[in-house]
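hiii so um. not sure if this is the right channel but i have a protein structure encoded as tokens and i wanna go backwards to a sequence. like what aa goes where. can anyone help
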């Protein structure tokens, strides 16, 4: 199977993704049943590790899939998965996950972008801008809690842009991250 998507497609996907996040996904649709949450952690990205750790510590992660820079684990792990997959990953990992999951019939739930500029992280999300604006280095943890709220239906629908507090960029961070969620392996009526 060939994947024909450019990096530009993913980087522009944040704007499209925030629109997709509100399409056909009402509070009642998200809150219908407890769902198995599988977290994708990109081990070489410090923000992704903190994001995944927050899901695990909250008790909401049923499983964590750890991928390395080669992303080979991602291709293998997503083929026969069922549940809600969430991640805060670099844009290549997010792009590949989206292609695999959508091709397999998964339903996009949300996609938000996070980019480091002028010594701050800029976030394009839905809701919770004040929480992210107050965060600096710990913004991935705040984001994980916000995503958990969004997945159980407790979210605001307004698209928001905000900046985290002043912080340095970790040397291993790619500086452009995408937070995303897809529901896979579930039949929709």
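sure thing!! here u go:
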């Amino acid at each position: 199977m060939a994947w024909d998507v450019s990096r530009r497609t993913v980087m522009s996907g944040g704007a499209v993704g925030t629109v997709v996040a509100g399409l056909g996904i009402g509070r009642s649709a998200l809150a219908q049943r407890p769902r198995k949450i599988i977290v994708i952690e990109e081990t070489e990205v410090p923000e992704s590790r903190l994001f995944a750790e927050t899901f695990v510590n909250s008790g909401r992660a049923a499983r964590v899939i750890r991928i390395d820079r080669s992303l080979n684990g991602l291709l293998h792990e997503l083929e026969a998965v069922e549940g809600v997959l969430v991640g805060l990953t670099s844009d290549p990992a997010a792009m590949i996950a989206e292609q695999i999951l959508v091709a397999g019939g998964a339903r996009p739930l949300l996609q938000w972008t996070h980019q480091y500029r002028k010594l701050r992280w800029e976030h394009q999300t839905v809701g919770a801008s004040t929480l992210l604006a107050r965060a600096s280095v710990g913004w991935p943890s705040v984001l994980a809690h916000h995503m958990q709220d969004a997945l159980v239906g407790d979210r605001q629908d307004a698209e928001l842009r905000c900046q985290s507090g002043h912080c340095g960029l970790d040397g291993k961070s790619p500086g452009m991250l995408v937070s995303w969620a897809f529901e896979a392996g579930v039949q929709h009526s």
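oh and The first strand starts at residue 37 and ends at 42.
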